[in-house]
Amino acid sequence: MYISAHYCLFMYDNPPLGPVDLYSTTVTVRAMLLSADSSDATAVHSLSFEVISAVAEQEGIDPMDIEPPEYDALYDVINPEALDSLFAPREDGTSRGSGRVEFVFCGYHVVVTSDGDVDVLEEKGGR
Q1: Is pTM, for the whole model, over 0.70?
Q2: What is the tens place of the pLDDT at every residue in 28-48?
Q3: Where is the Halobacterial output domain (predicted)?
Q4: Which residue did the predictor score with more confidence, 64 or 39?
């Protein structure tokens, strides 16, 4: 989930004396939301969320439990922001070409396709 704040306004009960440097800026905050309200069936999750969820399902645990030191951090294996944007539509709304990306995460061979499919297969030799 990416939250973008375009206007940062500071409110003061007692404004400071003298000039105040107010500016407009864009701040991007990355929040790794690993759990979801299952009642919200229309929610769209990022590919990085889907990878973590798929591995958690294979492990039989909650996605919130996929964290170091017991498990690899996804960002140590692949850039989650790059993964999320790899197959996302372009800024003008046109779709990107088809393709797939493969990597090893938490002892699993992960395949992510441009269709949004995430396949998690056990690596030879296991964890």
Answers
A1: no
A2: 333 333 333 333 444 468 999
A3: 46-120
A4: 64
| HSE-CB of 25 using CA atoms within 13 angstroms | 9
Query: Which residue in 67, 66, 54, 49 sits closest to 122, CA to CA?
Result: 54
- What's the average model confidence in pLDDT over 13-25? 46
Q: What residues does each domain of the chain span?
A: 37-122
pLDDT-derived band at 12, boundaries 50, 70, 90 = very low
How far is Cα 80 from Cα 101, in angstroms, rounded to an integer?
A: 12
Report CA-CA distances (Å) from 93 to 87, 88, 96, 105.
12, 9, 9, 31
CA dihedral 24, 90, 39, 55 (to 10 degrees): -110
Contacts of 6 (CB under 8 A, 6+ apart): 24, 25, 26
**All residues at 6 or more sequence positions from 110 whose CB lies less than 8 Å from its CB, including other chains:** 51, 54, 55, 102, 103, 104, 118, 119, 120, 121
Q: Which residues, at least 6 apart from 97, have a Cβ–Cβ distance to it below 8 Å?
A: 114
